[in-house]
Fold this protein.
Amino acid sequence: MITGLVVLAQATADGNAFAQMLVGGISFGAIYALLAMGFVIIFKATSVINFAHGALTGLGAFLVVAFATVLDFPGRFLTSFPEWAQWTANVLTAFAVAALFGVLIERVFLRPMVGEALFAVAIVTLGIDIVVRTITNDFIGTQPRPVGAPWGLNVIDLGWVIIAWSEVIQIVVTVVLLVAIAMFLRTRTGVAMRATAFDQETARAQGVNVGRVFSVAWAIGAFLAAVAGLFYSVFPRRATGVDQATAFIAFRAFPAVIIGGLDSIPGAVVGGFAVGIAESAANTYLGFEFLGNGFPGIVGYLLMMVVLLIRPYGLFGTPEIRRV
Amino acid sequence: MKGRPLLYTSYEADQGLLNTTSKKVMLGLFLLVLVTIPFQVIPGLQFLGQADWLRLLSTTAIFAIGALGLNILTGLAGQVSLGHAFFMGVGAYTAVWLGGPEDGPLLGLGLPIWIWLPAAGIVAALIGVAVGPTAVRVRGLYLAIVTLGLVFIGDYLFRNWASLTGGAQVGRDFPPLEFRWWKEEVPVIDFTTPSTWFGLEVSGIAKTFFLLALLAGVYTLLAKNLQRTRVGRAFMSIRDRDIAAEIMGVNEFAYKLLAFGISSFYAGIAGALLASFLTRVIPEQWNLFLSVQFIAIILIGGAGTVTGALLGSAFVVLLPRIVQNFTLWLQSLALEGEGLLGAIANVFIATSQTDFGLINTMAGVGPGLSVAQLNLVLYGLLIIGFLIFEPLGLFGIWLRIRNYWKGWPFTY
């Protein structure tokens, strides 16, 4: 990892710094886009502002660690396959379990709150965040847990820019997931979800199983959060692996949601990449001496404030219609 | 109106602070208990006079002040804010700038408490009004995330402004609770060292407790009165239906800004007192969790009610201690208890490195949650539980008890 960072630093110093910045920004932005998209899908389908998204990310990342390195399930039964295939099978199982946890959380804690004030439901998710995050952290322990990604620290050196393999895989996976979700929204279940987002009661009257839509939305949200958690825990992001701070990444993705507009899935993607690139640019061009420690962490929020001053509902959000 | 104690013939009487005999009696008893706690005279409540419990009660008073502020913004005006911790931090650092030592390595002017305490509130209020226009422009759920942003931006500023805050993970000492007229060598009243008051021996922590309880009392009265005025009613009308309020002539923008200002004032005062009470505070103290604690306080207590804010503060501050005592009790049962009770306790407590249990009293060793983690989980579950089962909070439970006894024995 150290050598990788040195190589990256050299490329930033004497290579094409802008291209390098863009690569980092896009791959970081992909993480934010995944988180923001899950957040928006949950919000659209269930009208829940999900402050527990960070907990879902941490939980998903921990499940990846648990299935890929500790349990080695189902990889241990797939001995005839190559190692990377076993790892992929483990990770996919972890994603599925993470999605199940999402469904479970919605079912147990949020189903009784249907119809309550949005604010009250949002605070319930804050409570869920505390509970899930504390228990996950207890399992994670004090030391970071590597996820054991098969591509390791390998990079592709194009001369003018250096791209880590994990960044390539991550961007490909993100694009595939974006397309998959766009296509899913055109399926029967997807249409039901859009109808529910539009008006829960009317959707119900039209025969949509609203409860099932809620479950599907939370499954997708938790799944996307777990994918984001995995990519956040590999080189060149945090190569040491999953630790107790992994869950906080979601708090940096909230501005992406607001920039795009709370109820816009394309907006979430645009916002995610915007925040990722802005952070990367701040990291590259605004030095530590000038702005101190942790400035990239708040770039997204500053960007959000600016966007909100111009457009109070984000770039693509629907203005709320106010009736007496 | 003899014999008809609950018949009100005027609005003033209906809105009276102490409009029933039982309210007067209960307030009197409550004040009596508060005053006598440090002297350990009331049988059964003597343990509250011990130094560690007095510390908890003092913290409760500080949290009550902060919670009253958030209650005005969230409970009365209906604006969800996660930025309370930021304003508390602003208050604390205003206090230390004005009240910190002049000759130290960090910023400080050495001014007395009667300057730095109100200033902490005023500066926080001004900053609240300054960021207000952005916050007031966005509505509902967007606001929660904007104020969340405030906490993160504040955290960044506090960590990096080392000449004021002492720097990340280092922090600095805050001015103690002492009263001086100006910069005298010896304070006129020192609220942290033992002395004799009116012929009674009073310990340092008892004096701190009296001061903080008095301040909490004053701010409670102010909050309660605010609720009964034109401003308070305007806040509530905005909360209940903002467009209807505007049509009735309530200037929504101005009143939301005012709610932000007042709430930030309370937060600033609470932040300054908390920092001063804890003596040394690191910049990371003013984080999202503190904000969530205040949200939890007003929700558990009962949003929109002053009594609820007080009950909630006591609950949230004392909960960790109660959980700790409970865990220790379970542990002693698991280790020494025999028969069924010991067996049940053993399920919950991990007594050794290899033993399985939900709770582990030796942090970091073996499986199971530590006491601190258990506290967090209970916090979370309580927030969830209250919102699902008792949206009116502790105040709602109290209302039900009160209404039951009001009609007793004819409760049907």
Notes: Chain A touches chain B through 49 residues (CB under 8 Å).
